[in-house]
Amino acid sequence: MSVFYTYNQAGADNGPFTLDELRTQVTSGQIPFDKLTRTADSNDWKTASHFLPDLADLSQPKLVSANAAALAAAGRTTGTLASLGLRVCAWLYLAASLILGIGLIIDNSPPIGFGVIFQGCAAFFFFLVVAEISDNVRTIVQNDRNS
């Protein structure tokens, strides 16, 4: 039976793990699929995927689900205050743009009104994307610190 070790940022080996323990930690998300891993009898570092080829579907990152798992593990159901603020700003900006744009359309300035509405929609989606990226980056950093 092979014994495995994983590399951490401090330069020390984590382990030992059996192949089944390594598989369990990868499938539960405790160890990333691309985590540097070696066998006890080798100094050759390879990704965990090298030792677990049957789990190839885990090689695709699932940032949103990782974010939800990290938040659930921390006992939280929402993102950071910053991302919540970005989401609130997005909705407020959209509402203000719609009100102003409709007002301009009614006031016989349709090109300007539609331009304001379009700009509001673009900003709305931009704020939402930045908020989601913020949550995902925070989750990745948190996972790196824990590994």
Structural notes for this entry:
- The protein has helices at 19-27, 48-51, 63-73, 81-106, 110-146, and strands spanning 3-7, 13-18, 36-39, 46-47.
- The two termini are 24 Å apart.
- It has a four-stranded antiparallel beta sheet.
- The protein has five helices and four strands.
- The chain folds into two domains: 3-60, GYF domain (Dna Ligase, domain 1, 2-Layer Sandwich), CATH 3.30.1490.40; 65-146.
- The chain is rod-shaped, with a radius of gyration of 23 Å.
- The mean pLDDT is 75.
- A hairpin with a 5-residue loop joins strand 1 and strand 2 (13-18).
- The protein is an alpha+beta fold and 147 residues long.
Structural topology:
Elements: E1 3-7, E2 13-18, H1 19-27, E3 36-39, E4 46-47, H2 48-51, H3 63-73, H4 81-106, H5 110-146
Antiparallel strand pairs: 1-2, 1-3, 3-4
Helix pairs in contact: 3-5, 4-5
Throw out a few tags for this protein.
147 residues, 59% helix, alpha+beta, four-stranded antiparallel sheet, Dna Ligase, domain 1, 5 helices
Major beta sheet, specifics?
Answer: 4 strands, antiparallel
Class of secondary structure makeup: alpha+beta
Sheet-strand content, in percent, reads: 5-15%
Low confidence ranges: none
Tell me the Rg in angstroms: 23 Å
User: What is the number of helical segments per DSSP (H or I, 4+ residues)?
Assistant: 5
What is the averaged pLDDT score?
A: 75
> Could you give the order of the helices and strands?
EEHEEHHHH
Distance between the termini: 24 Å
Percent of residues in helices: 55-70%
The total strand number stands at: 4
